[in-house]
């Protein structure tokens, strides 16, 4: 598996995991204001990084006030946008440098592949926060582990 095909696989996992969290939050007893805020942030940050990669203007604030329906729409749209972006990429583009400004206005340059790995890890981190909140409230959280997704056939084996 090439690096690009593996990154595409990770983004399929990310989409699946975001949808698992979204489905869990549709149950009123599992949903909280903080969990919704974290899911909205996941979507906004994933879009922001894609916009940086594509040299586009930022669409949403980093911490938007999204409803559950807004989050659902964002998760669904992001899956398509990332799939289109990754589908048009060449392996050599993973090493391209991208210059952007962070939310504090500081200029940075990062490799495309590092940005993509950040997106995956950042989203997993915040999904973990949501899971911890669900568990603290006495509920079983959505099971979004990568290896679970592979073992259950939700994403293809490597």
Describe the overall structure.
- This protein is mostly helical and 158 residues long.
- The chain has one domain (3-86, 96-151): dinb family like domain (Four Helix Bundle (Hemerythrin (Met), subunit A)).
- It has five helices and two strands.
- The chain has helices at 3-25, 33-53, 68-87, 112-136, 146-151; strands at 97-101, 107-111.
- Strands 1-2 form a two-stranded antiparallel ribbon.
- A hairpin with a 5-residue loop joins strand 1 and strand 2 (107-111).
- The longest helix is centred in the last third of the chain and has 25 residues, at 112-136.
Summarize the structure.
By secondary structure, this protein is mainly α.
Relevant terms:
single chain, 158 residues, mainly alpha, Four Helix Bundle (Hemerythrin (Met), subunit A), 2 strands, 60% helix, globular
Mean pLDDT over the residues: 95
Count of separate structural domains: 1
Strand portion, in percent? Answer: 5-15%
Q: Quote the distance from N terminus to C terminus.
A: 7 Å
Number of strands: 2
Characterize the largest beta sheet: strand count, sense, and whether it forms a barrel: 2 strands, antiparallel
Give the name of the CATH superfamily. dinb family like domain
Helix content: 55-70%
Low-confidence stretches: none
Give the ordered list of helices and strands: HHHEEHH
Judging from the principal axes of the Cα atoms, what is the shape? Answer: globular
Strand order of the largest sheet: 1-2
Total helical segments: 5
CATH architecture: Up-down Bundle
> Over the alpha carbons, how many angstroms does the gyration radius reach?
16 Å
Computed structural class: mainly alpha
Question: Within the CATH hierarchy, at the fold level, what is the topology?
Answer: Four Helix Bundle (Hemerythrin (Met), subunit A)
- CATH class (first level) name: Mainly Alpha
């Amino acid at each position: 598996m090439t690096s690009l095909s593996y990154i595409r696989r990770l983004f399929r996992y990310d989409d699946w995991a975001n949808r698992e969290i979204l489905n869990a939050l549709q149950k009123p007893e599992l949903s909280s204001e903080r969990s919704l805020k974290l899911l909205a942030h996941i979507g906004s940050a994933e879009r922001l990084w894609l916009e940086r990669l594509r040299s586009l203007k930022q669409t949403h604030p980093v911490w938007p006030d999204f409803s559950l329906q807004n989050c659902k729409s964002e998760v669904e749209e992001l899956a398509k946008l990332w799939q289109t972006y990754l589908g048009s990429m060449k392996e050599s583009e993973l090493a391209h440098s991208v210059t952007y400004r962070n939310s504090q206005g500081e200029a940075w340059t990062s490799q495309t592949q590092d940005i993509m790995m950040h997106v995956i890890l950042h989203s997993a981190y915040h999904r973990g926060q949501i899971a911890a909140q669900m568990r603290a409230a006495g509920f079983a959280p959505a099971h979004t582990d990568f290896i679970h997704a592979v073992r259950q056939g939700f994403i293809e084996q490597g």
